[in-house]
Amino acid sequence: MTTLFGIVESADLKNFEAPATPQKKRGWLPFLTVLFLISYGLMTMLIVEQGRTIESQRTLIQELFGDSAQLSAMKLKASVEHAQAAQAQSALTQAPAAQGPSSQIQNPSTQAPAKQAPSSQAAHRNQSQAAKPFRMPSRPASDLADSKRALITI
User: Would you list the DSSP string of 10-71?
Assistant: First the structure.
């Protein structure tokens, strides 16, 4: 074997040892595996906490809906009581002032519409809301012009 500086004897080759192969480094695999497991655990905890939060919001909404229904019932009852009290008050004020047979004939006719007015208005409002069928809104003119390029989605 020759080198640039001379000839190397075969005896020198026997004493010559090849450089030791460097020890294989551990690499990134164990670190990345641990990092993956930690991130997976954190993601699992996040999903569990989100589930708990959604469930608590759901129960809160249900409680608020129940409270709202109770409040609406109380308001309706209070308005009915107020209307009855107003009718009773108007009946008391009209009775002493009106004396005579002609005034007694007029009082029932004036009181009858007052009793029916709040309930008939509420019934009419409920009927008008229930009678209206749901209609889809019309398409804007810009959508109608581009019918050739209409996107069909599922």
Answer: HHHHHH--PPPPPPPP--SHHHHHHHHHHHHHHHHHHHHHHHHHHHHHHHHHHHHHHHHHHH
pLDDT (tens digit per residue) in 34-44: 999 999 999 99
Per the DSSP assignment, residues forming a β-bridge with 2 are 7
Q: Concatenated DSSP letters for 56-78?
A: HHHHHHHHHHHHHHHHHHHHHHH
**For residue 90, how many other CB atoms are within 10 A of its CB?**
14
What does DSSP assign to residue 7? B
Helix or strand run (H / E) with residue 141:
helix 141-145
Task: Report CA-CA distances (Å) from 57 to 45, 48, 50, 120.
Answer: 18, 14, 10, 39
- In terms of pLDDT, which residue wins out, 89 or 144? 89
Predicted TM-score of the model (pTM): 0.38
